[in-house]
C-alpha cells in the first residue's frame, strides 16, 4: 500500500496545492452534492454521462442561480473546476431552486468552504439561498463538518475509481432523477 492509498485526503490536498501534480480524482462541488444524493448518480457523472441540461427543472434552477443576487456576488473558478460565488459580504453563497435536497446542497457548500480553508488557506463562512422559497441559511465549517467532508472525499474517490456502478438503491426521489432510465431500464 502506497502513502497515497493509505491517506487519500492528504494525497488529494497535496496534489491540489501543487502546480505540477494532479489529484487521483478531481473532486468538484457537484460531485460532493451527487455523492450525498446517490452514489450511482455520482458514478455516472464521473464517467461523463451527463443529465439532460434542457430539462425544464434544470433550466429553472439555472435561471434562478444566474439571476438571484446577481448584483451582490462575484464568481470565481479555482484550479479549473471549483466554481464558487462570493457575496459582497465575503461569504460564499450557493443558490438553489429548492431546499428539497438540503443536505446534499449543504455538503456542496461545506466542500467549497473546506476547499478554500484547506487548499487555498482562506477562511470563509457560507450562505445557502433558496430565493423561490425566500429562505437563507448561514453555514459554518465546523470540526464535525470537516470530518464529514474528509469522509465524503474518501468515499467519492472509492466510488469514482470503481469499474462498475454501485448497486441500485431505490430512493424517494428516483422517479424525478434524470438518470432513472439508466438505472431502472
Q: Would you mind describing this structure in some detail?
A:
The longest helix has 19 residues, at 102-120. Helix 3 runs antiparallel to helix 4 (39-46), helix 3 packs antiparallel against helix 6 (102-120) and helix 3 packs across helix 7 (143-160). With 185 residues, this protein is an alpha+beta fold. The protein has 8 helices and 5 strands; from the N terminus they run H-H-H-H-H-E-E-E-H-E-E-H-H. 26% of the residues are buried. The termini are far apart. Helix content is 45%, strand content 14%. It has a 5-stranded mixed sheet, covered by helices on one side. The chain has a single domain (3-183), classed as Lambda Exonuclease, Chain A (Alpha-Beta Complex), CATH 3.90.320. A hairpin with a 4-residue loop joins strand 4 (126-130) and strand 5. The protein has helices spanning 3-6, 8-17, 29-37, 39-46, 56-67, 102-120, 143-160, 180-183, and strands at residues 73-78, 82-87, 92-95, 126-130, 135-139.
CATH topology: Lambda Exonuclease, Chain A
Mean pLDDT: 84
Strand order of the largest sheet: 1-2-3-4-5
Shape: globular
Strand content: 5-15%
Q: Give me the CATH architecture, please.
A: Alpha-Beta Complex
Number of strand elements: 5
Q: Which structural class fits the helix and strand makeup?
A: alpha+beta
Number of H/I helices: 8
How widely separated are the two ends?
39 Å
Highest-level CATH class: Alpha Beta
Rg measurement, Å: 17 Å
Poorly predicted regions: none
Helix/strand order? HHHHHEEEHEEHH
Helix/strand layout:
Layout: H1 3-6, H2 8-17, H3 29-37, H4 39-46, H5 56-67, E1 73-78, E2 82-87, E3 92-95, H6 102-120, E4 126-130, E5 135-139, H7 143-160, H8 180-183
Helix pairs in contact: 3-4, 3-6, 3-7
Amino acid at each position: 500500500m502506497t502513502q497515497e492509498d493509505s491517506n487519500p485526503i492528504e494525497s488529494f490536498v497535496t496534489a491540489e496545492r501543487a502546480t505540477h501534480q494532479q489529484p487521483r480524482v478531481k473532486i468538484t462541488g457537484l460531485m460532493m452534492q451527487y455523492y450525498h444524493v446517490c452514489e450511482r448518480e455520482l458514478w455516472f457523472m464521473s464517467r461523463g454521462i451527463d443529465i439532460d441540461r434542457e430539462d425544464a427543472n434544470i433550466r429553472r434552477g439555472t435561471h434562478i442561480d444566474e439571476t438571484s443576487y446577481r448584483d451582490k456576488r462575484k464568481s470565481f473558478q479555482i484550479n479549473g473546476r471549483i466554481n464558487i460565488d462570493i457575496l459582497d459580504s465575503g461569504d460564499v453563497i450557493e443558490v438553489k431552486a429548492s431546499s428539497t435536497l438540503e443536505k446534499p446542497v449543504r455538503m456542496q457548500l461545506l466542500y467549497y468552504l473546506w476547499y478554500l480553508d484547506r487548499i487555498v488557506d482562506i477562511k470563509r463562512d457560507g450562505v445557502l439561498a433558496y430565493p423561490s422559497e425566500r429562505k437563507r441559511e448561514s453555514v459554518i465549517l465546523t470540526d464535525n463538518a470537516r470530518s464529514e467532508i474528509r469522509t465524503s472525499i474518501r468515499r467519492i474517490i472509492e466510488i469514482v475509481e470503481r469499474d462498475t456502478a454501485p448497486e441500485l438503491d431505490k430512493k424517494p426521489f428516483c422517479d424525478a432523477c434524470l438518470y432513472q432510465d439508466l438505472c431502472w431500464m
